[in-house]
Amino acid sequence: MHLPLLFCLFLRLSGSSAISGPRAVRGVERGSLTVRCRYDPRYERYVKWWCRGAAWNNCPFVIKTTGSEKEVKKGRVSIRDNQKDRSFTVTMEELRLDDSDTYWCGIEIPGPDLGNPVEVTIDPAPTVLISTLATSNANMFTVAPKENQGQLPLLGSVHFLLLVFLKVPLLLGMLGAVLWVNRPLRSSGGNPEKNQ
Q1: What is the pTM of this model?
Q2: Cα–Cα distance, 12 to 113 (Å, whole number)
Q3: What is the dihedral of CA 55, 4, 43, 88, to 10 degrees?
Q4: How many CA atoms lie less than 13 Å away from 156 in the CB half-sphere?
Q5: CB atoms within 10 A of CB 46
Q6: C-alpha torsion sign, points 8, 14, 17, 21
Q7: How close are the terminal C-alpha atoms of the chain, in Å?
Q8: Cα–Cα distance measured from residue 90 to residue 60, given in angstroms and rounded to the nearest whole number
Q9: What is the C-alpha to C-alpha distance for residues 58 and 129, in angstroms, rounded to an integer?
Q10: 3-state secondary structure (DSSP) of residue 56
Q11: What residues contact 115, with CB distance under 8 A and at least 6 apart?
Q12: Residue 50 host element (H or E)
């Protein structure tokens, strides 16, 4: 092997200093993540790309730019080149756990392309824990069956919640205040008629 071929092989296998990006990024399932890759001057008008797979030589392209700054969207992935800033961003949306993999941000040039590996990790979405009470009274928190379509479960009704937590305590408070004001006065003599 002669020197230029070794240099090209080095660029394809280990990434290039002409392009750089984060070594690793993390996202959350059903969320989105954005990766920003930078490149050296003179590569502004070249096509930028994002491919998936640890092996550079058979890494299938996920998305490519057109050589302009216009955003390109394909499925859940978009790419946009900012030539003035000499960077491009790749956004992955509606992330799935199986999106975790090695990706490459790269530049399509004559000869071997320039690329930089990025390890993408997708974490599971946080789950909501339901208390034992909610589990035992599940019918109060579930969607109404088809025959009751249009009716909300008891605890799901806004009116019921207002009644229990606002109207009833307010009514009881006012009733207590009225009874307190109208209570009979006690005197030390024990005869309320004499004290009037």
Answers
A1: 0.59
A2: 7
A3: 20
A4: 13
A5: 19
A6: positive
A7: 119
A8: 15
A9: 43
A10: helix
A11: 11, 12, 15, 16, 19, 51, 56, 104, 105, 106, 107
A12: strand 47-52
Give the chain's length: 196
Task: Give residues with Cβ within 8 angstroms of 47, minimum separation 6.
Answer: 64, 65, 66, 67, 107, 108
Q: pLDDT tens, position by position, for the chain (196 residues)?
A: 333 333 333 334 445 689 999 999 999 999 999 999 999 999 999 999 999 999 887 899 999 999 999 999 999 999 999 999 999 999 999 999 999 999 999 999 999 999 999 999 999 998 865 544 444 444 444 433 444 444 445 555 666 666 677 777 888 888 888 888 888 776 655 555 554 4
Asked if residue 21 lies in contact with residue 105, where contact means CB atoms within 8 angstroms, the answer is yes
